[in-house]
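Technical note accompanying the year-one report. For the benefit of new consortium partners, we illustrate the data format agreed upon in the data management plan: each record pairs a sequence with a structure-token string. No post-processing was applied to the example shown here.
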Amino acid sequence: MYGIRNHTCKPKEVRALIVQFFKSDADIKVDKKNKLIYIFIHHQPTKRDDIALKALCKGLNETQIKYPGTDMIIVYDVLSE
């Protein structure tokens, strides 16, 4: 799924990572001028998980998902240190 499988081949591990990402804290920034919604997900417990999360964000960003009911594109990223 969006590059995560490059970091683990076990379906149970992929599922566990996705669940972990959904439970993570995140900061949201709305840029109305450029019609973007930024979602900055907080760092994960391990560097390996951060790398997998960055790969997921990259894949999701490539799809240019629009926030439902708007013309604003959601941009995912891992919060910088």
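Partners are asked to follow this layout when depositing records. The longest helix spans residues 47-63.
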